[in-house]
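Example 3.2
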Amino acid sequence: MKFPRMALAAALFVLASPVWAHAFLDHAVPSVGGAVSGSPGELTLTFSEGVVPAFSGVALTSAAGASIPTGKARVDPATPATLHVPLGGKLAPGTYVVNWHVVSDDTHRTSGSYKFTVSP
């Protein structure tokens, strides 16, 4: 009965191996698909694991595709999974698209996008 023991050993090895995870967007402020009253001062994106700010960033555009200036993305060492992106100015009412890319602590790159709306 070596086969069942080998299968069990292989299963335990897989379960005990490190997870080859990627940093996926967990939540954001302004929220994904949400609406905020008035212009936010920054975008806050929280991921499923820590990210490396030097290789991570955000591009913000209007719904029409016009680029919106942002400051440099940063991570607070106390919360390494949260990327803070200051906005370069006040956002007018309308819909905006956040295009993000991050490199996680395990060196995997992920990217995505979402929309939010600024209400008057």
